[in-house]
Design brief:
Elements lengths: L18 E2 L9 H9 L19 H18 L5 E6 L2 H13 L7 E5 L2 H10 L5 E6 L22 E5 L1 E2 L4 E2 L11 E4 L16 E5 L10 E6 L16 H6 L9 H18 L2 H20 L6 E2 L10 E5 L3 H13 L2 E2 L10 E4 L6 H19 L1
Helix pairs in contact: 1-6, 2-6, 3-4, 7-9
Bound molecules: pyridoxal-5'-phosphate.
Length: 378
């Protein structure tokens, strides 16, 4: 399959679509794309595109309100939590979390480092205060999670930070780690809305939208209200959580289109999927198809993550050598399975199979893997 630049005005259609295994921005539900297309020129009853809409208009009031309510409903978020929509991606939260929760405080922020993203978050926190690494998986290439006994928290941490799914290495927590009395802070960017979350166990949850929940441009922050008291007046206005809480996530112009798509994804999860528990079952069934191939391959496909820590979102594995990996990626692309190359730090293959990846796409990848191995063996 060739990647030709689009130079003419040929219109793409649903039948032109390939299976997109990109880690993010990632595949969206076809229903969501179709709805956005249908409403692109004029939102029903409004007469203008959501791309053109005033963020202070009654129509956008409704879109924002629906999106926030849908998130609250899907995740079962209590009234003691704020749901804030921001920009700057999950990367800005690496800074905002310690700016708001750590700046000027005595204790350390504890980071459980299970992969590249957790490591990056800790690096930013060091600019704001003391950081204690409560566990670090770097020694074995971030191929696993800690057991409860391996986590060493500091005395009275200001918060404990985890990454629920390490997108690059493909390791995913199956339960929430115990943060003791400290607020648990979770970067949920790459498995947000893929399964239920016990929100009440967390002080703060953040996630960019472009993996499971929509498009780049909007980031969701779910924050226990009492933690707002930690933010200090020396923070720049736009880096202070209180600014977003006070102004209903609209202190300035929000990314209106990204908020709208997030709302459509929530609606799809509710009406077409049947909620997050159902989504979780679909996702587990999809990832099992691929992990079963790994386990039956006699080591030809070697998984990066240890079996008990495997991610339902990002399936990472190696082939016997890089030449075979390149050949595999080429064969897959010929079959319309694209963006399977692993991150350079892990190498090999990474199949990102988020919520919107259809079962048929995963089945096609599974069949390609089985055939590729058979052909190698001759
Ligand atoms: C993608 C990702 C990020 C970075 O998100 P940006 O929106 O690009 O800043 C952070 N953490 C995790 C776990 C991710 O998957």
């Amino acid at each position: 399959m060739e990647n030709e630049p689009v130079t003419d005005r040929r219109v793409g259609s649903a039948t032109d679509r390939v299976y997109n295994f990109s880690p993010g921005p990632a595949v969206l539900p076809l229903e969501v794309l179709e709805r956005a297309r249908d409403e692109m020129l004029a939102l029903p009853g409004v007469g203008i595109s959501v791309l053109e809409i005033s963020h202070r208009s009654p129509a956008f009031d409704q879109i924002l309100e629906n999106t926030l309510q849908s998130l609250r409903h899907l995740l079962g978020i209590g009234d003691d939590y704020e749901v804030l929509l921001m920009q700057g991606g999950a990367s800005l939260q690496f800074s905002m979390v310690p700016m708001n929760l750590l700046r000027g405080r005595e204790g350390a922020a504890d980071y459980i480092q299970t992969g590249t993203w957790g490591q990056t978050g800790a690096k930013e926190a060091r600019r704001e205060g003391k950081v204690h690494v409560a566990w670090d998986g770097a020694g074995t290439g971030f191929d696993r999670l800690p057991t409860a006994g391996e986590i060493r928290l500091s005395d009275r941490p200001e918060y404990v930070h985890v990454t629920s799914n390490e997108t690059i290495q493909g390791v995913q927590w199956k339960h929430d780690p115990d943060a003791g009395a400290a607020p648990l802070v979770c970067d949920c960017s790459s498995d947000f809305l893929s399964r239920p979350i016990d929100v009440a166990k967390h002080g703060l949850i953040y996630a960019c939208a472009q993996k499971n929940a929509g498009i780049a441009g909007v980031t969701v922050v779910i924050l226990r209200k009492d933690l707002l008291e930690r933010s200090r007046d020396d923070l720049p206005t736009m880096l202070d959580y209180r600014t977003y809480a006070k102004n209903g996530s609209r202190p300035n112009t929000p990314p209106v289109f990204a908020v709208y798509v997030l709302g459509l994804v929530c609606q799809w999860l509710r009406d077409s999927i049947g909620g997050l528990a159902a989504m979780n079952r679909h996702n587990a069934a999809k990832s099992k198809l691929l992990y079963d191939v790994l386990d039956a391959s006699g080591g030809f496909y070697a998984g990066h993550a240890r079996p008990e820590c495997r991610s339902d979102m990002n399936v990472t594995f190696r082939l016997p050598d890089e030449t075979l990996e390149k050949a595999f990626i080429k064969v897959a692309a010929e079959r319309q399975l694209i963006d399977l190359k692993g991150h350079r730090s892990v190498g090999g293959i990474r199949a990102s199979i988020y919520n919107a990846m259809p079962l048929a796409g995963v089945e096609s990848l599974r069949d390609t893997m089985l055939e590729f191995q058979r052909q190698q063996r001759g």
